[in-house]
Amino acid sequence: MPKDTPSKKKKVKKIEARRSEIHGNGVFATAAIAKGERIIRYKGELRTHDEVDADYGDIEEDGHTFLFTLNDHYVIDANIKGGVARWINHSCDPNCEAVVEEDDKGRPHKDKVFIEAIRDIRAGEELTYNYGIVHDERHTPKLKKLWGCRCGAANCTGTMLQPKR
After folding, report:
1. pTM over 0.85
2. Residue 33 burial by CB count (10 A; 0-12/13-18/19+): exposed, middle or buried?
3. Partner residues linked to 77 by β-bridges
4. Which of 36, 61, 109, 115 lies 20 to 30 A from 100 at CA?
5. pLDDT, tens digit, 9 for 90 and up, residues 111-157
């Protein structure tokens, strides 16, 4: 390789999607992941809240979503052009968190979401984060069941819905 050609380091793939005991598909570490490591970007089609409401507003909720609220203007719709991160399951005792990286020039359509490790993760361990689902309406038993949590953590609340503020 010529001296002036920068070498390209190949990024080692540390995750894979496969069946999960929590729910359907999940994402698992194939190698150790260190606390604070940025693991993957949550990808999908960038859409306005109105576009998402128009397409999904009349569909009865089923407790399953690939929609990630990015900011007051946009939603990432991983049903369209979604990446592997859409398969990361919710947990009440997560090992990851979703971090919104705001555009440094204040352009909301350029904001991004990354999944980062909040503790060391062992190879073979399933990646999880708290979805932070907020519903304004009353949290009825039916709604809590619809958004039921299956994480199995000792501190499991039984629902993915966040407590009312």
Report:
1. yes
2. buried
3. 45, 67
4. 61
5. 999 999 999 999 999 999 999 888 888 888 888 888 899 999 999 99
